[in-house]
Each structure stands twice: as C-alpha cells, then as structure tokens.
Amino acid sequence: MLLFTSGFWLRQFSTWALCLLTVTAYGQQVVNGNIISVDDGEPLPGATILVKGTQRGTVSDISGDFAIEASPGEVLVVSFVGYSTQEITLDNRSNYDIGLSLELGALQEIVVMGYTSKSQKELSASVVSLDAKELQSVTAGNIETMLQGQAAGVTVTSSTGAPGAAADIRIRGITSINNDRPPLFVVDGIIGGNYVPSDVESITILKDAAAIGLYGAAGAAGVIIVTTRQGGGKPYLNASASFGIKEAVTGNFEMMNGAELYEAQRQMWGESNLVSFLNNRPEELEDRNFDWLDAAFDQAFIQNYNIASGGQMEGFTYSFNADYFNEEGTFTGTNFDRLNLRGRIGFSPLEGLEINTDINAQFSQSEFQHFSWFEDAFWNMPWDDPYAADGSLLGPDYVTNPQNEWYGQFRRSFLFSDQFDELGFNNTDLVWSTTLDYQITDWLSIETRTRLGFSNSRTDVYHSPITDFGLPFNGVIQVDQFSNRNVLSTHFLRFNKTYGDHEVGAFIAHEGGLYREETLNFSGQNLANNTVQVPAGASVVAIPGGGYGSLLETSGISYISELSYGYQGKYFATAYFRRDGSSVFAENKKFGNFYGGSAAWLLSEESFLVNNSAINNLKLRASYGTTGNSNIEPFLDLPTYDITRQYSGQPGGEPNNPANPNLGWESTSMFNVGFDLSFNMGLTANIDIYQKTVEGMLLNNPLAFSTGYQFRTENIGDMQNQGVELTLSYTKNFGNFAYRGNFNVSYNKNEITKVTDVSNRQPILAGSIQQINAVGEEAFQWYMPKWLGVDPDNGTPMWETVVEDENGNVVSRGVTDVYNEATFQPMGSSLPEITGGFKNEISYKGLSLSALFTFQTGNLIYHQTRFFVDSDGANTGINLMRLQDDWSRWEQPGDVATHPQLSRGGNNSAHQHSSRYIEKGDFLRLRNITISYVLPQNVLSWSGFKQASVNLRADNVATWTGFSGMDPDIGLNVEAFSLPGLSYLKYPISRQFVLGLNLNF
Amino acid sequence: MRNLIILLVLLVATSSCELDIEPADLATVDQLLAEDGGIETATNGSYALFKDVLPYRGEEFGNSNNDYTRHLYQMSEFAADNVMYTQFSSDPLYLVFTREHFPDQNNSSYFWFIAYRIILGTNTVIASATEGESAQSDQLIGENYYLRAMVSFDLLRFYGKPYTTDPNGPGIIIRTDPGEEGIKPRATVAESYDQIINDLLKAEELMDDGLSRGVEFASKLSAQALLCRLYLYMERNEDAIEYANKVINNGVGVHLASNENYLDNFANTQNSSESIFIIKFTQADHRGKNGSIGSMYYDDGNNNGWGEVFASGSFRTLISQHPDDIRNQLILSTGGTKSGYPIHYILKFSGQEGVVNLASPQYIRLSEIYLNRAEAYAKMGNSAGALADVNLIRERAGLSGEALYTSGNLGNRSVLDVVLEERRLELAYEGHRGFDLTRNQRDLVREYEGIHLENGDTRTTIPWNDNRWVFFIPTNEIFNNPECVQNE
C-alpha cells in the first residue's frame, strides 16, 4: 500500500542512503549525542548532523547515537526527513540528547484521497490530513467528536451528550437548506463502511471541489477519508486500555431551589392574592427542597479496550483489531456498549495481482431514556418528594392521582418509571470490502473495489403496566426494526507514466450502487403481566401505527475520470469529469454531468527560492469544480397518493405529493485559492479562500396551503457560502523541550440569492417557532417579533411594530404592548460565522502536555427552554430557572429591568416567541487537556514491551459563554421538532477524566 | 490473465444498476383512480385525514396534537364560555382560550392546511370520476361533494366573520380544481356560502338514502342536515326549517336518543339513534393523552388524560339549576382540586368501547337539527314552534313540569334567549357555542374563575364583533398567495 504517514519507511530508506555519505572530520573535541523522535520516543537512525557553516557532518547509527568533532559555541544542525530541523548551540557538555518532532505537512507525506493517493507536494486541492495521534487525545466513541477544533473549515457540534452519540459535522458551512447532509465518510477507499477510532491511522478531509468532485453527489458536503491500520511490514501487537469518569455539564442553566421558587410564586400571585396563595402554597413548602437534577444525574464511567495486531507472513499481510467501548450515561439508566471486530488479509496469487479483503463487524447496544424524563428532571418542582415515608419511590398510582399532594403540573416521577421501563436500542452492522488490483504493465493497472453492507437495528420500548406511560394501556411494547442492505462497486483503469519532466496520471472508473432499506414496526398493549416484555405478550395491537412497515430502494450509477499532470516537480494540475445517474430524479433528469480542475505551483522549487534559507515550502493552489446533490427522498417527481391510510378499518389514500417532472440534480460550484507556506524556523501557514455557489438547490418550495400541499421539492434556490480558512502551526525545539502550536480559524458567510418564485421568503418551522430563508440574507434567520424590553412604568413587555409599504420598505416603526400586534421579522441567523480551535503542546523527552481550545462566534441561539421556565409566571406548575447574573426582574415603577413583572398566568404574553429568547451563541471551550508520558527505553528493556505510554486526558474542562442554556454548542441540522440553533432541553454533554495505557509488544 | 479480465468485465456488468424504481407504499394518482375500488380508497383517505396526523412544519412524524377533529372541537369550544382553564399550557389551544392568536400557532395553521388537503382529495376524485356510471359511484362522488362542503364550511367559520355580520367580508379561498396551484384571492363570505350550498345540493342529489355506507360516512341525510345548519347561519330561516323537516322526517330511522340511552349517545355514537354524521376514531386511531379531544377534559388518574380544562362556572350554574337534568351527569365533580381549582371534568368525549377518552364525535346529530329549527322558528316569530322543539329536548333530558317552557314562564327572556340557552346546554363542548353567540351578535361573558389572564382573573366580557373570534391565516398562505388578505 502507498501509505507512508508514519514515517517508518522514510526512516529505513534514509538510514541506507545517508550511510553512504562520506564525512570528513577535523581534529576537535568529540561531542556525543542521541537522537530520538519526540513523538514516539524511538531512536532516529540516519539523522544528519552538520556543524553549521562547515563541511563537517555525520549520521546517527541504529540506536540514534552519533559522535562528531566540534567545539563549544559552534552550532549543530540536526535534520531528518519528515522531521523538523533543529539547531543546537554547543556548550561545554560533551553529551547531548536531541529530540526531533514530526514535521506536519511534510512534502513527502502521502495523502490518501480515496480514489487516488497523492504526495503533499503534488497536491493541488484543499485538504487537511490528520494522523491518529492528533485525534485520539480526545476521548470519544466516534471520530466526529474527535475532530472538533482540529481542522480549519470543519465545524463540529455535539448536539447531545447521550452515550455513544455522534456529533454533527459541516465542512465549509451548510450546502443545502432542506436537504443538507453531513460529509461523506470513505473508509479505506470505498464510500461508507465502518471503523472505530482506535483503529484509525489517518484522516483526510477534502474541502474543495477539486477534491470532493470525484465523489460526486455523495461528497457534495465534503468528504472525510478514514484510513484504518493496514497490515504488512514488521509484525506489531498493540494493546491499549482507557477508563475514566464523567459528569454532566449544564453550563449557566440552573433551576431554583424550594425557597427561591416559593418566593417567585408568591410574587406571581401578588400581595392582593396572598390568601389564595397561602391556600394553594402552604408556607412549609419554603423548606422543602428535593433536588430532581441530583436524583437524575450521576457520575458515570467510560472504558475502552483495544487490541490490534498486524504483520506479514508467507505471502500474506494481515491485520486484526478488536475494540470494546463502554460508556455509561450521566442520566440515570442510560448507557452505550460497542464491540467492533475487524480482520483483513492481503495476498498476491499472481505476479502483479493484489487482493485485499476485509470484514468489519460491529455490535452495539444502548439503553436510553424517554425524552419526557429530561423535562421531568428539570421541571419537576422541588416541593414534590418522589419518596414515600417508607423510602420507596412513589409511582403513578400516587403521583397522578389529583387527590394526593403533588404540586408539579405533569404529575410524573421518572425515578419510579426508570425502575421498570426498558428502552433499548441495538445494532448489528456487517461490512465486507474487497479490493482487487492488477498491475498490467508498470504504467497501467486495473482495480476493482466492492463493498457489501448489511445492518440491522432494533429499538425496543417497554413501558410496564404500572408506570406513567404503561398505565393507560396496561403496558406498552413497541418494537421498531430497521434493516438495510447496500452494495457499492467501483472499477478503475489507471494509468501512470513519467516522460522526462512530465508526469502523467489518469484513471477512468465506473461505479454502481444499490441501497435498500426496510422497516417493520409493531406496537401492542394490554400485557399479561409485569414480567412479559416481548411482543407476544401484548393482547391488543391498538395505537397509531400498531403494525406497519416500509420499503425503500434507491440506486445510482456513475462514470468517473481524472487526469493529472506534473511538470518538473513544480507545476501540477488535475482535471476530473463525472457523469452521475440517480433513481430519485424525474424520468429525463436522472443524469447530471460534473467537472472541475485544479492547479498548483510549487514556488519553493523555483530557482529564485530553492536556496532561500527562510522558506522551506511555498505552494500556490487554485481550483474550480462542480458537484451534484441528490439527497432527497425518492418519488418526489411523481403525483402520488399515500395509500397506507385507513378510515374505520377501510383502506384509504391521500394525495401527498405534487408532481414535478423537472426534478433534477442540484449543482454546487466551488472556487478555491490558497497557499501553503512553511518557514525553516518552524512556522507553517495555510490559507484558503473559497466561494461555494449552489444552483438549482433542491428546496421545499412552499406552496400556499390552500393548494392542499405544503411544498413541492424543486430545483429552485440559489445560495452562496464565502469563506476564509487559516491554519498556523509552529514547532520549536529547545534541547529536550519541544513546543508545538496549532491555530486554525475559519470564517464563513452564507447568503441566499434565490429561494422561491413567489415571495423571496421561505418560512421553516418547528412547532410554533419559525425561521425564514430570505433572499439577500443568511439562511436560517429567526423570524419572530422583536422584543423591546420591559416598560419601566408598569413592568409589562414591549415589542416592535413595523409598517411597510407595498414594496416591503419600512415606513415606520412603533412599540406595542399587545403581542399579536407585534410584527414578525427576521432577527438574525443561527449559523456561526467564525469557528476554530487552537492547540498548544509542550514536551520534554517522553513527557508532554497539551491543551486544545475550540471557539465559535456569530450565531444566534433561540433558547426555547425559557419559554417554559423563564416565562414570568405563565407556568405555575413547573420549576423555574434562576435568573442569570445580568438579568433583572421588574418589581416597581421606575425599575429598568430585563424581565417583566412576575404574574400568574404570564405577563401579557411576554413569554410568547420573540427575540427575547434569542441569545448569542459565542463560546470558548477548553476542549481537552492531555498529559502523556512515553516510558523511556531503558525502563522498558526488561519488560518485553517495545513501547509503553500512559496518558491522562480531561475533556470539556471549561466553557466561557454568555449563553444562559446548558450548552452553546448547538446542532446545525434540520430535523424533526428542531431547527438549527434551537436550544431546548437535551442530554447534557459531559466533563470527563480518562486514564489511558498503551502497550506495544 | 484472460480469465481475470473476463472476471473484471463481469463484475462491471453486474454492478450496473437499474435507475427506474417503483414505489412500494405510494400509488400515482392515475394508477389509483383507474383501478377497481380506487375511488373508494381515495374517498376513504379524505375521511382518514379527519383523524390522522400529517407531517407538518418539519415535524416528520407529525405532532400528535395535530388533527382536524381535535382542532375543530377545541378551536370552536375554547374560544367560548363553557370551559375554564386551570393552568398554562404550551399547547396552542391555550391561545384559543386567551385569544392571544398569532398567524402560525400550530392549531389554526395546521387546520387551514389539513382542511385544504382534504379539499384536494375530494377535488381529485370529483375531477376524475364520471357521474351517472352507477348509483354506487354516484354515492361516492356525492360523499366527496359533502366532504368538500363540510370542510369549506369549517374553514369559513374559523377564518371568516359570520354571514350575519358581513356577507361581503373575506371568506375562504375556493379551490375546486386539483391542478390549480396559482395565486387566488379569498372569495367573499357570501360567495363562499354559495359554493358550499351548491356542493351540498349536488351531494343531496347524487346520494341515495339506501346507499349510505354507515353513519361514519357522508350520506344524503348528512348533506341535508348540514344544509339546515348553513341556512340557519345565513338566517335563511325558511330554508333552514325546510331542511330541518327533511332531516327530522327522515326515512332512515334516525330519531332522538331516549333519556335512558342519552349518556351512551356520546360514548357510542356509532350506534346512537340520533347520529347523522360522526367522525370515527377506532381504538387503532386513539392517541390517548396526547391528541384525543377528551384528554384535556378528563383524567381518570391513570395517565389517560391531562384533565386540566374544566366545565366553566357559568355553565355549571346553568346546568345545575335542574339537578335531575341528565346532562349534569356529563360533568364529573370529584371533590378534588387541580392547581388550586375544584375539579369538574367533562365526560362527553370518553368511554367508547370502554376506553377512557376515546370518542367518535358527532359532527351533526339530530338534537342540533331540532334546535336549528327552534332558532329559525324563534327568528320568524313562531314562538310555539320554537318552544315545542326546545321542550322536546328538555323532556328528553328528564325535565318536566315547571322546567318546561311556555310563553308565560319565560320571564324577561325572549324565545331566542331560551333557544340559545338550550343550545348551550345540549350542544356544550360540541363546537357550537361561539358561533351561536357571534351569529346572533351576543357578547361573550366570562364571569367565572380560572386562569388565563393576570392573577387568574378571567372575568371579562368579549364583544360579539371582537376580531379574535376569527383566526389569522397562516403566514405560508400570505407569503405564497399574495392575493390572500390577512384577517384584521
């Protein structure tokens, strides 16, 4: 395989090449030294040692040792391919320990691009490559979470802290409004597939069209290429284990205690209703203080064990990886387990033919919580104690009975339900991948890659006959089974040849894929008794969707080609063309053509720079390309009836989709310019500027409801994303000390240029909360009345009224204290403008300390939870949130306050959706701190380990934000009941401390 | 080597996929309507939308509170004076009660959408089916005309002002062509009534008494009953009486439920003798606590309902004047309290097949027809006729003697007062009260406790011409159909 990211092969090669160097030494004092790689603590054989300004030099031996004649005051220049060069000024010592660290972005490094591999040198597209070490400092069950803050242009948000949950990733902003999608994952060269973090050797993120264009539709939102550890080479056996403890982080969001709530409710009733208040809320409540959150959340454990082995024997290469990950949730009764097994063998049955085959099996299961349990944990009142006098938990027979004392409006105790209800999810995922590569001549090869995938998941919900949700139905069982099968196959013909200064590469490929998913759902009620938990125990199949299933198939065909050219190792260009067909589009619109190209100029190889002592590498890059998007449901082109309905037991159908015979590909074009610059002093800078234009965006074009439809999916919108990405990294060694810093920041500005043909405005909604996509504005603007604060005279709310003329120009603005007179208007976008991260690492010999910060700014969050718990008295039956430090409550005339007077039933609709609850989402987070220690060789020599390291990691250590909710890091995807930037109660993220141990045999 | 190339060629060949895939759970319009029984399936689908929850506003699986029938009953009833609220609810039905409407509150905007989805379904059938092919197919076409009329009328009542207030004010957008997607203004209230009446007359003509598919489907009788209601709303009193007579003297055996069967009339509408058209909810359709009409009214202590909206003080005062009035039994006062208010549950939408809060509400039942006739008589000055119809209803409720009306015992009340009071008692919670008030230009007097304004004070009087009797048109319609004017 063409994989050199570890530097291992380079090291071997250099040893032999540099040993041939003839070295002449002049009679001076002998200085001894040892050179190691600070990254793994291993000796570096073959490193070059030169005395600056002289011809004296030597190379290190197999143990990394060297000896050279030099005198104090002279400077040793120590260099090694792939590592950053270090200069050491000699003093009176005769012995030096020198650590070199890996140079990021080293030119020779091979970047795996999926369909192709390229060296950094010839790369003309905008890509980021990260090795496993960069990622694994953060402890998480998935790569998505690990990528946070690591690469410019990559926005990662953790919308939930549920165990095992993946984060949301967007590369260079959103790609589409209604049919946005996450980036494409490509594992070991084939789209899709499975892997676990511990098995990852490198990740490449493709950002510009020149790079993602090859992936066509699937890659329109960016591509993340994951390469797992391959076999071959020297045998290795690696074992690692980590375990840690975590706790829920709820940020600035705090609920009241019993006394605070009592005081707030007293104010709601008001002095004039004191008698009624005391009747309803006896004074002793003030001292009752049950902490529901403390009962709901607890510290939890996380553990991960991994064994990996690989090598080569008798014509075979092999690798094997077994990984077990277990994460308990901080919320009661939740957890996640995952076992991943992978085995791969490679062999060569014929001269020139290489076959690799790989099976990955993943089994996972989790226990989750009913969503209402979160609401109950936060909203149940501190005056209600879920325990009976005898210490047992009170169940619905007590709690839901209005005759019994219970102040909370919802009359639920999840603590009781948690004892009996079972909510579980399990998933089995099998992937078999095979690649076959035949080298016909030294410049021509054919290759085929095929992946077969099967997955089956099942959600089991059981509500016992005695718990809240089971009681009305005498127990409920619901089973949802989901399975999919897919196959993807790609066949290449590749060409690679060098003619003098000209390097030419090309491939053509054909790709076909089929995806089929089936669901089967059952729900039944009236269970024989409390112990039956299988569907057979249900005697009635009788709630909506009691039994149903669905079947969905889509298919695609693509023809792909790429041509690349290099001249003199300085000028590089590539061009691609692909033709994609998808089953989801209308009859004559199934195919789309996409093309693009890129060019790079390696200035630092030019004569005027090649000897420049400051600049080590300078490359200019430019690219342009188009990609398609087909991420919509099938059959949206047809006028259809949904024929799954029934009325009074008779089958029924309703017209559910308006025809669109013109439904076709959405096309995104991206223009990118950038440069890579690195200085010998250790500083590297990468800058990219891009413009991404979406045309014919597949949009739910809203139709007036009076047509009977909500929308028709059409190629109607246009949108632009413009952005800048900057990465700076700096590496410097001071003797045995080394410093590495990395800073990345990206700016993205979104603008909608066309949205519907009628009104230039497309409203999108989640329940009663609205956003709007309007021409000339950023996507996902909150759309609601503008809050003008509290009237100091009487403590009532004020909103803005806007009068517009026929052309939509504002004629006048006014103030109203009546909610339904206020004007709905755009109030700013939920999309972040600036995201980034920075990482500092210092190391001394085998010991290193690193800290990773991430940040985000420019987005507006709608803090929906406040509609309930910061509603000025509208809600008298739930607990309330404490006011933030800079908030104030109106109490008497003249008060200039942020919050209206408390009033039972609410204060003139002050809590209705308005910009009152819109808050800035800016934050800075200390995402991770890692201390690691690589045990020195002399300690290890007796143990039989080749290498051993320990590390201690802390995640989500601290967050600085003004946001009043649990977490300003809000998901960006549009999903059921949610909008991008909408913050409601969620599974809180965790602060965690993990100890890891890694052994190489 | 050659074998290998053959193998590769084979692999390429076998991986070519078919791009034409047929749906498994959908049928194209042409397919469905062309097949045997297709029109019946399409027609049933329109009824299904009375109780099904459609994906709406990004809520992929729908919001379980969203269905036509629940909104129909709550948007009408909660605006009036038969209910009291005990606590805040984030469900927009709360906004109906407090009248703090906004255009995209989930209930009124979903109602607008789902009503027009049903109209689209009927338009599709009407456009493709041919009249006169058989009595059975004419019956189905007639059902579609009825459904289009009924849904249009419900829209007109929620989004337009009463005919008696302003027949030239904005009514509904009339959609009769399934292919029409264009921009279109609202018809006037009068034009809307004309359209609906024409549809109902057409339905009456096409359907046959003997071919009714059951009380949960539209029938000739239901078309006549709805015509009676429409004529009453328009104060075409003679026509209202004519149609009331047609319905009362029906030939299909529909007659008033007896006193003994009265409570069962609500729990068992399918078999009630006075049901004319019911919206059928089977056990499979029941959404329990989240989404049944009864959920807001009744909580049996087993988590079957929220039970947080009670019978109002003024309604209880009225009905408890005669403790032997059987209708008292539809209010359950447990003696307990919720949120500090004494419990007075409403049982009108519970108990079908023994299931708490499962009900198939009567969209029209015979008692209403008698009371429609009574109101029309009262307005025409036929006091004797009006009081006779009212007394018929009161006697059935178990009242007798002094509790029955004569022209001499009305005190200072008019005959119309008495008729409207009886309509309130008999038809409470069935969605009539607000329209009865506005049609007759009577103010809404909420002289009873409950929480909806500051400090729990609900003692307000809302004028009959208050703008918030009418809901706002959803923003979607205003944005995408610029000729549609918003309500004031």
Describe the structure.
The complex is a heterodimer of chains A (1001) and B (488). With 1001 residues, chain A is mostly beta strands. Chain A has 13 helices and 51 strands. Chain A has a 22-stranded antiparallel barrel. A 5-stranded mixed sheet of chain A has the order 10-15-16-13-14. Mean pLDDT of chain A is 85; it is low at 1-27. Chain B is mainly alpha-helical. Chain B has a single domain, classed as Serine Threonine Protein Phosphatase 5, Tetratricopeptide repeat (Alpha Horseshoe), CATH 1.25.40.390. In chain B, the strands form 5 sheets. Chain B has a two-stranded antiparallel ribbon. In chain B, strands 3-9 form a two-stranded antiparallel sheet. A two-stranded antiparallel sheet of chain B has the order 5-8. In chain B, helix 3 packs parallel to helix 7 and helix 7 packs antiparallel against helix 8 (189-206). The mean pLDDT of chain B is 91. Chains A and B meet through helix 6, strand 23, strand 24, strand 25 and strand 27 of A and helix 1, strand 1, helix 2, helix 3 and helix 6 of B. Strand 31 of chain A pairs antiparallel with strand 1 (26-28) of chain B.
Q: What's the total count of β strands of chain B?
A: 11
Q: How confident is the prediction overall: mean pLDDT of chain B?
A: 91
Q: What composes the largest sheet of chain B? A: 2 strands, antiparallel
Tell me the helix content of chain B: 40-55%
Global structural class of chain A: mainly beta
Number of strands of chain A: 51
Distance between the termini of chain B: 82 Å
